[in-house]
Amino acid sequence: xxxxxxxxxxxxxxxxxxxxxxxxxxxxxxxxxxxxxxxxxxxxxxxxxxxxxxxxxxxxxxxxxxxxxxxxxxxxxxxxxxxxxxxxxxxxxxxxxxxxxxxxxxxxxxxxxxxxxxxxxxxxxxxxxxxxxxxxxxxxxxxxxxxxxxxxxxxxxxxxxxxxxxxxxxxxxxxxxxxxxxxxxxxxxxxxxxxxxxxxxxxxxxxxxxxxxxxxxxxxxxxxxxxxxxxxxxxxxxxxxxxxxxxxxxxxxxxxxxxxxxxxxxxxxxxxxxxxxxxxxxxxxxxxxxxxxxxxxxxxxxxxxxxxxxxxxxxxxxxxx
Amino acid sequence: xxxxxxxxxxxxxxxxxxxxxxxxxxxxxxxxxxxxxxxxxxxxxxxxxxxxxxxxxxxxxxxxxxxxxxxxxxxxxxxxxxxxxxxxxxxxxxxxxxxxxxxxxxxxxxxxxxxxxxxxxxxxxxxxxxxxxxxxxxxxxxxxxxxxxxxxxxxxxxxxxxxxxxxxxxxxxxxxxxxxxxxxxxxxxxxxxxxxxxxxxxxxxxxxxxxxxxxxxxxxxxxxxxxxxxxxxxxxxxxxxxxxxxxxxxxxxxxxxxxxxxxxxxxxxxxxxxxxxxxxxxxxxxxxxxxxxxxxxxxxxxxxxxxxxxxxxxxx
Lengths: 321, 316
Hints:
CATH architecture of chain B: Orthogonal Bundle
Oligomer: heterodimer
Distance between the termini of chain A: 69 Å
CATH architecture of the largest domain in chain A: Orthogonal Bundle
Number of helices of chain A: 12
Order of helices and strands of chain A: HHHHHHHHHHHH
Largest sheet of chain B: none
Number of helices of chain B: 13
Number of strands of chain A: 0
Strand content of chain B: under 5%
Structural class of chain A: mainly alpha
Largest interface: A-B, 45 and 45 residues
Strand content of chain A: under 5%
Shape of chain B: globular
Radius of gyration of chain A: 24 Å
């Protein structure tokens, strides 16, 4: 198949939510917080943004911005639960955040079904968004590549600057590397742990909001969208470095598109992506993968280096003699 | 409405349903218990359940024997546990990430594997016939006792095994040298290693056993509970099991009690969703909210205990 730009646009469009969840996971995992509520946050962010987009009329430029920010804020608040429970009571943030995903999902489904459903439609969905709230598309066609993509890239820069150029970012990374050290050197460990998870929530929520307002014109998610888990893969591929997140997101979106095409043109189911992703994921996260090989290379180059030096030394001595 | 509800709950068939729903969660929770005792967080229970559930159906279909299916599912569980162990212990992947990867395999990978083996998409529909499902046992004598018999008798073989395993797990952990080693490795690996216990070997054993439990849970799901495999079948039970482990303070009996609580909540959900004016979604929340509350209460009680201990030390 020849290269086509429309295909590229769809891949870029698919990166929008996963860049955000990837960034969120980067921040949380950097502080060693295995908060897995990215899933729930994306859905909640999308839902809150959708509600603002439907029920709060506003000016064109302002509407999507406010919707998305409120979506992000809601998730930031929700993330306080696992974060504060971890810091104050020592409850595992992993278990609480996993439970949060389901709690958030069922609450959203309840309100979507009983309070906000558009009964004129066959499927359960909300009323359509105000046209002022939709995030404009960057290109013509069905690729759904909205300006949200640019916002996502902007956030990559912001999060990278935050993590590597601010006091708080430094504290987050330091706590991940060595928590006792951070504590003894006077960092506010508890506050930083909470901060990292709240930021993670806000980022995922914004991602969900942008995805909903940029791709659809009504809220129709009836299950967790899966971007939270993809975000973890992306953060692992990026080694928790925000700058690498877009590249990792592109790689995963590209693989995903490839698997979809493969299932269209051949008999292989598109779910093969999960096997490929899991394998890449495992080997990338493995610190000791090919460790012996790496060791060999290091030993070999050192030996060469030493040999060369001793050769140089002997030739020098000969020259003197 | 509440009268209706109460008349529903205090019936034998409701309690029967509670036990039936509890069993798979209990298997996985026991898996979480033994892994946690050895200091390993097995977050891959969900994925292991999915994959072994699929292979349970496939093995029993190929051999037309449910016993082979159950054992096969268990072996697949062990292999996946060892795979996680290999990546976590040998290649130094973070164990949580290894678990997440296993869950990925369980999510979409199973759909792919099913297609590769049978050409079917999404569920095993036509593969399943009654003779490859786990049979139901009517316990003689007990089944004749009026209400108790209705509740306790007539479950699948694996349901009884699940509750039996609570006892066996307790014996393993507290009455055998292997159990002592497992707990020692979990509490203080350096101390264990200094007295000659192979920490690595113990961790491998614990995670393999954990996989075996999740494998049995998976077999229960596909070969009895939902009578066939489908892609959304496990639906977070592996995660709930992790929570049950945490809420049950990491002990087999505690895990059983909290699994029963989940079973109760889910059985309630199926009952209530038929009633007028009750949102099934909000009822579905109960087990998850209960978990978070349970974790909070547990954490508070631990903190209090530690405080008391410290105060006593100060006094002395």
